[in-house]
Amino acid sequence: MTALQDQLDEITARTRTLVQPERMALSERAITELFDSGAEDKVLPVGAAAPEFELNDASGRLVRSADLLALGPVVVKFFRGRWDPYCSTELEAWRDEHARLREAGALLVAISPQSSRQSDFMVGQHGLPFPVLSDPRCAVAEQYGLAYSVPEFQRDYYRSILLNIPFINGEDSWRLPLPGTFVVDRDRRILYAQAYADHRVRPEPEEALAAAMAACRR
Fold first, then answer.
1. pTM
2. Which residues, at least 6 apart from 15, have a Cβ–Cβ distance to it below 8 Å?
3. What is the domain extent for residue 181?
4. pLDDT of residue 1
5. What does the alpha-carbon distance between residue 95 and residue 47 come to, in Å, rounded to a whole number?
6. How many domains does the chain have?
7. Whether the predicted pLDDT of 54 surpasses 90
8. Collapsed DSSP state (helix, strand, coil) of residue 47
9. Where are the alpha helices (DSSP H) in the chain?
């Protein structure tokens, strides 16, 4: 099986051949500014208490973190949206590992600011077997230290390529999360935490899977 980061690097390489250099420069600038802002320093660390949440899934059903944790450790995966090929590729990787996670006794939820309708499209398109939850205005992502506002120059870029983030998210805040992966134990203690300002970099699912499976064995 190809490592997730290798798949993401292939996306980056293809993008560089297809996108004009001046447009690529805007994306690079956004990543650099986000990193320089200290965004990664705000991410909740291992050992912190995970915030509780109540969010709607792709079908509009309310999903409570307390109910999930009553069943076992939970992998909480924050992503930007179905429009991001890095996010969809990452969630497909988790789709392929989901059976192992469930057999161990752990669960997975994926959270983004996109609307439930967009999540429903994504579940069907990518065959995702886990709940995909909507986090309006990145309220929960904010509590995990992940939320940020897209800068104006990047908003203009997204508009120029007809990527309508406010429509996808169902509101106009232009808030997105750093893609982040957390493993939360039954007592809400964070066992694993990874998030990057560079959305092209993601941890391998095996890392979080190992943390979740270890928690199940305790």
1. 0.96
2. 24
3. 4-40+54-217
4. 64
5. 27
6. 1
7. yes
8. coil
9. 4-18, 21-36, 65-69, 85-104, 116-126, 139-143, 152-160, 165-169, 205-217
